[in-house]
Design brief:
Blueprint lengths: L1 E3 L2 E3 L2 H18 L4 H11 L12 H8 L6 H28 L4
Antiparallel strand pairs: 1-2
Length: 102
């Protein structure tokens, strides 16, 4: 976590670890494996709503100085990833149940 312009920002990895820490014990009490919690949290925190959370875009922005694309150009893919991620996680529930992880 670092401070920029008077506000704190965290990377996706840090926020994912915070979610795993917060949800891990609750999920374990409900009979959900910690591996399922880890997988869902890590996949769900790989979004890039803000410029500084898009790890692929930051180097690109530095190299091309905003001449080829902007952060707004990547947002449709962000929304598509969120929908695909949610569908994938929901579709995985029966598989996790068959494996005994839930």
């Amino acid at each position: 976590m670092r401070q920029r312009n008077g506000q704190y920002e965290t990377s996706g990895c840090c926020s994912g670890l915070e979610r795993i820490h917060a949800l891990g014990s609750v999920a374990a009490a409900c009979g959900i494996s910690e591996y399922v919690t880890l997988f869902v949290c890590l996949c769900s925190t790989a979004v890039w709503h803000l410029k500084f959370t898009n790890n692929e875009f930051i180097p690109l922005l530095g190299v091309q100085n905003g001449e080829m694309c902007e952060h707004e150009d990547t947002m449709p893919f962000n929304y598509a990833y969120m929908v695909i991620n949610m569908i994938g996680c929901l579709a995985s529930v029966p598989v996790w149940q068959m494996l005994g992880l839930m």
